[in-house]
Amino acid sequence: MAHIKIAIMSRWNATCGISLHAEIIGRKFIDMKHEVIIFAPTLGSADTNWHHKHLDIKDEVWVHRVYEETEEYFYPYGGKVDINEILKWDFDIFIVESHVRFPIYEFKKVVNKIKRKAPILLVLHLGYIRDVEPFMEIKWDAITVFDRRFIDEILVVFGSDIIKKVFEIPYPYVILNEVKPYRPDFAKGKILFITYGRQPLMEYLDYIRALRKLSQKYDIVYWIIRSDGKTPFNEEWIVEWNQRPDLKTIYSYVMGSEIHLLPKGETRAVALSSTLSQVLYTGTPTIVPNTRYFELIPVDKNGFGPVVKYTAGNTIELYKKIVTLIENDHLRRRVSKEAKKYALKYSDEIIAKKYLDLIENLLSEESAR
After folding, report:
1. pTM of the shown model
2. Is 198:243 a contact under the CB 8 Å cutoff?
3. In what helix (H) or strand (E) does residue 4 lie, and over which residues does it extend?
4. pLDDT of the chain along its 369 residues, tens only?
5. CB contact set of 161 (below 8 Å; sequence gap of 6+)
6. What are the CA-CA distances from residue 254 to residues 282, 305, 331, 350 (Å)?
7. Which of 1, 141, 201, 308 has the smallest C-beta neighbourhood within 10 Å, fewest atoms?
8. Looking at residue 165, what DSSP letter applies?
9. Taking the CA atoms of the chain, what radius of gyration do you get in angstroms?
């Protein structure tokens, strides 16, 4: 495979599923000996968004913060794009990771200058037609979606000219084999549950209420790691840390825990969970509500598979499934095995190769014209 210079315009090094996707495939491209340049938003504009907080790490030298995000209420208007800074750099392909605060109309003004240098590829993260529509005003060379729902529920309304440019490439799962589990001293002799991320407080309620009952039967601790703000819960078995750890650190935290509790509320949007893709391969059983974020992950009739699903709001069912996981070693090992198997099916390396195959086809078509 020829050396490819890949530009990605996206959030980067942030607590955000858009950022994570770019980071997973971008770093894997580098591992595969390709060259990557990142065009990211300024932190002053991006950090005003609830979904974006910069991680406690320093940007790489090949990350350039060249655009300002708009406000969600102004989208698709507003924001800025420093096209001169973008055009200073060489690239063979230009990838855009879509998000609701992306300055799409400002980008639309300059996109033809980029297209004179390279084909443009859109990664579709958006789950509502209203947010996708402004992106469809640009003539992308290709569009990738994570699963068929994005086509059947969203892109179909834009017609066959759009559909024929669409390729299905699943969201990648992180595979790390050299990370050691970290288990905090406060969990010694206890069953350790972990939740990390920036979920709205209401999404914790099922887990808090189930664990209240569980704490009467078992010696437990619930380790909550949030990037900003403390929860209002004051139970003695809760330990909270205020951190924005990097991927390897959070991976080690989940590996050292007995059960990962992943809160995700219901939505009408097409959606999936980037949080799950970060840590499913750890093998630590993950419990999730049966919301749209997880609807494509197969489980048996009892809700056990690569994840453990319960009916959102049904804390009795949730409690019983936690108890079953604790007391049934065979089932716990089965869930762990299926989690690893599922993650490997959509591994970062497999998904990066799918993108590279698509990029090579686009470049071949470009050279043939």
Report:
1. 0.94
2. no
3. none
4. 689 999 999 999 887 889 999 999 999 999 999 999 999 998 887 666 555 566 667 889 999 999 999 998 999 999 999 999 999 999 999 999 999 999 999 999 999 999 999 999 999 999 999 999 999 999 999 999 999 999 999 999 999 999 999 999 999 999 999 999 999 999 999 999 999 987 888 999 999 999 999 999 999 999 999 877 788 999 999 999 988 888 899 999 999 999 999 999 999 999 999 999 999 999 999 999 999 999 999 999 999 999 999 999 999 999 999 999 999 999 999 999 999 999 999 999 999 999 999 999 999 987 776
5. none
6. 7, 18, 19, 23
7. 1
8. T
9. 21
Quick check: do 5-172+347-368 and 185-345 share a fold? yes
How many other CB atoms sit within 10 Å of the CB of residue 67? 24
Asked if 310 and 289 touch (Cβ cutoff 8 Å), the reply is: yes
| 185-345 is classed CATH 1.20.140.150 | no
Domain range summary for the chain, segments of one domain joined by +:
5-172+347-368, 185-345
Q: Is the peptide bond before 119 cis (omega within 30 degrees of 0)?
A: no
The Cα–Cα gap between 168 and 132 comes to 16
CATH code of the domain occupying 5-172+347-368: 3.40.50.2000
